[in-house]
Design a protein that fits this description.
Elements lengths: L2 H16 L15 H8 L3 H9 L6 H11 L3 H6 L21 H12 L2 H17 L5 H29 L1
Helix pairs in contact: 1-7, 2-3, 7-8
């Protein structure tokens, strides 16, 4: 498994966990509850950490358990294949969490994008969340803006290159 595939999996895992209220844990490196991941995937603490750090991808049984817990499709979690959410909708209606209208539209729009673009967006969101943690609050605005500009430039160039090839 290529390192970038492991990191892409990690980004999707963290994104889905942050959208699941019982998986969020403030004050942690990724803003998610690794102990909850460990329990739901039925893996060791070290393996759960490796999933979050982009160092490993789960085998089929833990992958299925994680996807069911987070109410996402296994193919999205493993490979980034859209749509993200399990079932017939891109917004989790039965999760017990209310998504405001702007988030519902955002999720629906993300589901329509190619995985390469959603991976860039996921990385951007993860980086902005990291930068906004308490110890980096002073730098978050400046660094987050610069990171966002770089990500937007890279995504734009990637899309232009694909259009030229296609």
């Amino acid at each position: 498994m290529k390192e970038n595939e492991k990191q892409a999996f990690s980004n999707r895992l963290i994104l889905a966990m942050k959208a699941t209220p019982d998986a969020v844990k403030t004050g942690t490196k990724h803003g998610v509850d690794a102990a909850k991941l460990k329990a739901k995937a039925r893996v060791s603490r070290e393996m759960a950490r490796r999933y979050l750090e982009g160092m490993a991808i789960p085998n089929p049984d833990p992958m299925k358990a994680i996807a069911e817990w987070l109410n996402v499709r296994v193919t999205w979690l493993r490979d980034g294949e859209a749509p993200m959410a399990a079932g017939n909708t891109s917004v989790r209606e039965n999760s017990g969490y209310y998504y405001p209208a702007q988030y519902q539209q955002l999720i629906a729009d993300l589901d329509k994008l190619p995985i390469s673009v959603t991976n860039h967006i996921s990385s951007l969101i993860s980086e902005l969340a990291r930068l906004s943690s308490q110890e980096e609050t002073d730098r978050a605005s400046k660094d987050g803006f610069e990171f966002g500009v770089k990500m937007a430039e890279n995504t734009t160039e990637s899309i232009k290159a694909r259009k030229k090839q296609g």
